[in-house]
Design goal:
15 helices; about 10% strand; Spore Coat Polysaccharide Biosynthesis Protein SpsA, Chain A; seven-stranded mixed beta sheet; alpha/beta; two-stranded antiparallel ribbon
Amino acid sequence: MNANAALQMTKSMLAEKRVEQTVSVIGSTAPSAPGTDVEISIVMPCLNEIETIVACVRKAKAVIATHGYRGEVVVSDNGSTDGSVEAALAAGARVVHQPLRGYGNAYIKGFDSAEGRFILMADSDNTYDFNDLPQFLALLRDGYDVVMGNRFTGNILPGAMPWSHRYIGNPALSGLLNLFFKSGVGDAHCGMRAFSREAYKRMHLQTGGMEFASEMVINSAKAGLKMTEVPITYYPRLGESKLNSFRDGWRHLRFMLLYSPTHLYLWPGTAMMLVGLAALLGLAAGPVKAFGLTFGIHWMFVGSLLALLGFQLINLGFFARMYSLSSHIDVTRDGAVTFFTRHFRMESGLFIGLVLFSIGIVTFLFVLGTWAQHKLDVTHSIRLSILALTLSVLGAQTVFSSFFISMMVIKRSGWQ
């Protein structure tokens, strides 16, 4: 059945049962009465899902009724124009409207409008089986904060997931997420998951796009929420997919990197700087032979480049981390930043920077003096000049970076 036919059928049904549906619609759109004890809210985002929204709402309501749960079905509409809203209302859902486009925006509106003590989220494209709700709810009742569905330990039906997503995209992104944030989740991008209302408050979700799925897992891990997984069945989608594999995959990867400056900046920067300084100091006295190769003066330029670039990356990592903390983008601290902020003082940074800068300047003066007296050959003077230049720049960067970091960690009670 195409979208136009489904829309006509829905309109006919509404016209035939106008009186009965009016009562149903009024009851479904109004929030529950104050004091109503809703245990579970099933929240679905919706953007032109006329082919599946009715089936999803009915299945969700059926599982609530079958098990006797005190529950509700909330559809968060994201600007549908195909009759999805009317169809969801007729099926018995409570519909809320989110004018801001985006997967994450739709879910946040739905979560904020939900009244249940627990919330189950699932897409409205008929890819998830709402009969899995009892296993999610049982674990939440047992004290888990977040319960993730896992399609890989469950059953992925033929045609439900492209091979590129199943064997490349999802495993790679889930692996990186676990490497960076140690969430322990095997299917980090499963769209069926449940959590308590208190856990939702601690997630501090902000992103409006598809990266919302990663943000939820990352923030749950950072907040120390108790998480587990359950195997679920994943069905082929009906209707047009809103997912763009490369664009949305990049958005997930970009978000993970932005939320982990330690892995994006600090560790690569530290490795580069240590290798660069080792090369500089090791070659300052002359060429070095190793592995059948001779490493000469040209490798000192490479060492200088690595040392300066590495130190710049380290600075950017701390700047990014301080900014995210001061602007409340991320309220957690990783080990490196915690150690640094606990021991860093601007005066210490200034002292280290001035010492490095002074050593560099003194080395420059030594090279200039010996060169003027014709007591230093050209090659050796270049070696010392490269070392002096590198130390001078590192020293100057340390001084000004210390000022900048101190500006970002100033407290109202006084200077750090």
